[in-house]
Amino acid sequence: MKNGFPHYMLKEIHEQPEALKNTILPRLAKGLPDFTDDGIPDRLFADCGRVHIIACGTAMHAGMVARALMEPLLRIPVAVSIASEFRYEQPLVDAQTLVIVISQSGETIDTLAAMRLAQSLGSPALAVVNVKGSTIARESDYVLYTHAGPEIAVASTKAYSVQLAALYMIGCRMAMVRGKLDQSGAKAFMGDLLDAVPAMEAMIQKKDQVRNLVTHLINAPDAFFIGRGLDYAFSLEGALKLKEISYIHSEAYAAGELKHGTIALISDRVPVIAIATQDKIFAKTVSNVREVRARGAFVILLAKESARVEEDIADIQIRIPDLADQFTVFPIAAVLQLIAYYASVGKNLDVDQPRNLAKSVTVE
Ligand code: M6R
């Protein structure tokens, strides 16, 4: 069942490139995203005035990345809500709001209840779901299935990356339909998305590099993940992965926000994983790296191959292949998942069944 891997999580990390291709390729027509076979009409994308994404946990983090991608691309408001908050908030959604619900299992009770509430307020609901025939898939107005295959490990890995791929394709199709991307722009976008697949694969193959660095993490009580913009959205998932399977308290912070309080927690040898893959704000994140390093942090910097920065800016640097900024999440996700995985293994914990957690959360 584990195909020779010691844990389902590692197996599922390795399955990501294939899962991504299975999710993307059937929906490509002449290099452009096409949801005809999914029964999703373009008018759904043309008619809305805004987008509201609703999900829990890792799926919500995929939504955070999608928000940071879509809003600048579409130039309409794109909000993200935690499903368990949305349900009790008297949310401002209506018939002009495209609600995108994300769920691997399709059974998460808060996500389902939030979707029902949005539908009762007139919003069309498009569900991005992995499990065929699940309740959210059945009750949504439209469904875009991800093709991750069964995910057994409690810690979500391949479900996250295929959710991202589906959301990127939705963003691209919406941008086409709304005149924000012409055909050649949309083709280039999809080309960049496809380039991210071998880039992710390359980082999975470099797993020994990550395995070696976790010795600096496993005895730490706390760890911080920092980044700006999309990098901040990626860091949210890095922190969740690490805390749920290694039990190291980890937090994600927008790097520029550190000095408004959290930097007080940075002292000697506190691990800081800094994600700096966005060219236009690279220098800003690097200056935050300098700040935490000056306070003694042990810094692991994740940056693009071509990023120019002094070698001693960080204690460890992990370089990812050069991709267009919007697409770096795929190789970065692989690195963050591997950090959590090897930290859990290094602490001799139950990687696939962490304490207190269930794969599908069907109670409030
Ligand atoms: O099945 P769902 O995607 O709705 O599950 C939502 C969360 O419970 C889930 O993403 C959870 O956060 C991950 N398994 C954590 O790795």
UniProtKB/TrEMBL annotation:
Residue span relative to the full protein: 245 to 608 of 608
Enzyme class: transferase
Coiled-coil residue windows: none
Gene Ontology CC annotations of this record: cytosol
Key words of the record: Aminotransferase, Glutamine amidotransferase, Repeat, Transferase
Entry protein name: Glutamine--fructose-6-phosphate aminotransferase [isomerizing]
GO terms (BP aspect): fructose 6-phosphate metabolic process; protein N-linked glycosylation; UDP-N-acetylglucosamine metabolic process
Chemical reaction(s) catalysed: D-fructose 6-phosphate + L-glutamine = D-glucosamine 6-phosphate + L-glutamate
Ranges of residues in domain SIS: 40-180, 213-354
Keyword flag Transmembrane helix: no
Gene Ontology MF annotations: carbohydrate derivative binding; glutamine-fructose-6-phosphate transaminase (isomerizing) activity
Keyword Cytoplasm: no
EC number(s) on file: 2.6.1.16
